[in-house]
Amino acid sequence: MPTFKGDEATNYDSRIQRLIPGYELLHDLTLAQLHTLFPESARILVVGAGTGFEVVRLAMHNPKWQLVAQDVSEDMLEIAKSRCLEAGIQDRVSFLAEPLAHGKKEYDAVVCLLVLHFLPDDGEKSHLLRAIQSHLQVGKPIFLADLMKPHTPFEREAQLFACENLGLTSIGVERMRHNLTHEFFPLDRMRLADLLDECGFDSAKPYFQALGFVAVTSFALP
Ligand SMILES: C[S@@+](CC[C@H](N)C(=O)[O-])C[C@H]1O[C@@H](n2cnc3c(N)ncnc32)[C@H](O)[C@@H]1O
């Protein structure tokens, strides 16, 4: 997994939009569903909040939403904090710079975008998903986006070409080519379905796909 510390944190915002085709659309579509489900108040946990892109967008959208931004990288969350201050939303966002522990069922929704794919499927993915499930009220949604196993033999190559078109340098493309094979632990649909089931969620409902990146929503079971 990248470290998401130091320069990797500082440069994150300029890199990510060139690495994930449709990055903003993914966040827009997540927001659209939260808006529809929770037109009034809601408590939303953002797991792997990074530099705060979704936190700022969500908090700015609905002043009645309360957010918790969690991440294991203090450097990423420091950037998120200053973005929240700049946006004047600091009183509605709290920060948790530590691994997510099991907790009370106090959240109406969890957003976990582009995080789980960095965890190996040796118990780490299920550990995080179970912790998330423990925080979600029964029947409430998780929004999950991850790199999946390639659906065709040419998908990864097409993805790199799309990144190049988004302005990624040739060095960046080669780094991404290496990372796609060595830094991610993508699942296929069957394994994702099993994992969600094991961790107390219902079936995955897809709402976004950009080549290998897929987002789904799923609801917490009792
Ligand atoms: C690619 S960034 C995504 C950030 C943000 N969600 C976004 O969409 O821009 C992945 C983030 O997940 C965090 N992360 C990695 N493993 C994690 C874990 N086990 N629990 C919480 N956050 C984690 C990293 O520190 C990093 O900030």
From TrEMBL:
Keyword Transferase on this protein?
Answer: yes
What is the superkingdom listed in this entry's lineage? Bacteria
Q: Which organism is it from?
A: Pseudoalteromonas xiamenensis
- Give start and end of each Methyltransferase type domain: 45-137
User: Protein name, please?
Assistant: Class I SAM-dependent methyltransferase
GO BP field: methylation
Database matches in Gene3D superfamilies: Vaccinia Virus protein VP39 (3.40.50.150)
This entry's Gene Ontology molecular function terms read: methyltransferase activity
- InterPro entries referenced in this protein's UniProt entry, alphabetically: Methyltransf_12, SAM-dependent_MTases_sf
Q: Does the keyword Nucleotide-binding apply?
A: no
Q: Which keywords does this Swiss-Prot/TrEMBL entry list? A: Methyltransferase, Plasmid, Transferase
